[in-house]
Amino acid sequence: MASAFRALDCASRSDIEAAGVLPGAAERLHDELKKIIRDHGPASPATWRSISAGLLDPELPFAFHQMMFYGCFKDFGPDPPAWTPDPEAAALTNVGKLLENRGEEFLGSVYRDPISSFSDFQKFSVSNPEVYWRTIFEELRVLFSVPPQCILRDHPNVESHPGGQWLPGAFLNPAEICLAVNDRRGLNDTAILWRDEGADELPPNRMTFKELREEVWLVAYALKEMGLAEESAIAIDMPMNVNSVIIYLAIVLAGYAVVSIADSFAPSEISTRLTISKAKAIFTQDSIIRGGKSIPLYSRVVDAQSPKAVVIPAKGSSFSMKLRDGDISWHDFRERVKQCKGVFPAVQMPVEACTNILFSSGTTGEPKAIPWTCATPLRAAADAWCHMDVRKGDVVAWPTNLGWMMGPWLVYASLLNGAAMALYNGSPVTSDFAKFIQDARVTMLGVIPSIVRTWKITNCTSGYDWSAIRCFGSTGEASNVDEYLWLMGRARYKPVIEYCGGTEIGGGFITGSLLQPQSLAAFSTPAMGCSLFILDNNGHPFPQDAPGMGELALYPVMFGSSSTLLNANHYDVYFKGMPVWNGKVLRRHGDFFERTSRGYYRAHGRADDTMNLGGIKVSSVEIERICNSVDENVLETAAIGVPPPEGGPEQLVIAVVFKDSDNSSLDLNQLRIIFNSALQKKLNPLFRDGIEQGHEKDLEAAAFAARPEAKALTGRPFLIIYL
């Protein structure tokens, strides 16, 4: 891309006008650019830092932003830094302050300053887990009703605990810690900011920690009135709004386990998750309001043959529909406790107790049921504290759902760090959402690349002030360099912290940091407490500091990661057949990664048959099962997730084998529509069809390179493309 742009010292005023800037503004910008070049030269990180901080603004044409970035780094080579840390600001981050106070204690004479010593501190977090995690628990103000005997110890059963046993003997309740008052949060501090679609001219709603505590306590008391057995599983199938957060915390506070179900799922997918988890009750809404339309939700829960449902109205305080026998309205559920009885005594649980059952796609088609223990929330909060610098006074937004791991992550990452979470009850790809981010003064905005792509195409963020943002977070799928340059520009070039992990990790294993230069669509560091390896073609790890590309494996000593699955053998899924390093078998993850010559990491898709489509992890088996049954002319299909040539989110390619390959009357476009409709109805309504024109042949070649066996299905497969 950089080769298409002129070096900055060759850029003229007419070049700036050609990028869409008006003549008067072009002259001013050219004069300012010449001054920056005199001070810093035409092609250095300092040049770009000055340009991004003082010359560019969000309302200038993006073509001019591209001209400045690619012109500055025209001859830089790979991984140019789109953002570099300022030493004074770095010293004020959570990790910066910790290292300023205790850096020499941790690292000895090698400690220099927070920026220079960050990589050493990351390695320290791996080699000294006892010291590191004890320090983090102090920073998070973690309350143990029974303290752990130690932070980590070896476990005699290597198959059940390949990485050892964390916090043995500890008892705690993560929801209680979220609601505790301490020096990081007071009763009158804001806990949740939210806005409902259609109320965009009103100020955001606000709930204090005091109000949140009282609401959670009331719902926890009402849950106890249901008479469920201890440790029962209770499902939530709702949008992520203030009510679902209250319910989530109340379930955990009362000692039950949340079953996370995305509100977009079809009845069959809801039923599968209810059956696997053995849920005894479910909270849901009558409908979901999007774009002024009412999308049924309770009816899907009923079709899934759910257990007893508590039904919340999407709008107002009541609904007119008739409930199934045994189901109950939100109003009547709360009326079981006429008024809050005061503090609800949190149920103290052993650290290995399950607090949340989440699901991740398995390669066999059935989703893996992954229990989050009492330790997992602490891991989520620690990642936010270390890598996104979430702290008291922050406002954290991340469009997601409690059915995906980033929903519970958002709850714990904000509340355990004394920050407020910002929830928009509506579509995140509208100007109304952009206005909410402005009005709520969001300081950390999480995204998935598909959302960013839509924002850029529609320009729906234009005119809104996102200057309160200190950093972005990005997860769910591969990102695109140009789209993320555009995203940074919306907030006057605040950094994007890429974040890759998994439901079974409880957070990330590779990410970025505000103490390191950040390159676009790249990761700068393993997550704190994590050590990762890239395997060569023979399954052997490359040297950790050497460039290379291959399947990624994780060192098993990783706080918060799973040790069991409800419906599969955990050791077989994650460890069986993996190489041994330093006496411990490495943990399988399933992603292809590259470590570049400059020490950054880039994701290159999955090594197994799962894929990320629009931030939704799905198995090819699940897709093929549906596509094989939708048309009598189809013999067999193969689903392949392929990144587009310019990088970014995967697109779905379907190779189709017909029973009669000579049938020329088949309408492939109609088959595309049928496939897409079936996937929306039977798997997830969020799947949409579409493809950017001109990429069909590139995607076909990439698809068959990714899964050569698909081409072997027949001599003449057809390709149907989806997004």
From TrEMBL:
Keyword Ion transport recorded: no
Record's signal peptide: none
Official protein name in the record: Probable acyl-activating enzyme 17, peroxisomal isoform X2
Keywords, ordered alphabetically: Membrane, Transmembrane, Transmembrane helix
InterPro entries noted in UniProt: AMP-bd_C_sf, AMP-binding_CS, AMP-dep_synth/lig_dom, ANL_N_sf
Residues that span the membrane, as ranges: 245-266
Superkingdom in the source lineage: Eukaryota
Species this chain originates from: Punica granatum (Pomegranate)
PROSITE patterns: AMP_BINDING
SUPFAM superfamilies noted in UniProt: Acetyl-CoA synthetase-like
Any single Pfam family the record assigns to this protein: AMP-binding
Domain AMP-dependent synthetase/ligase intervals: 203-552
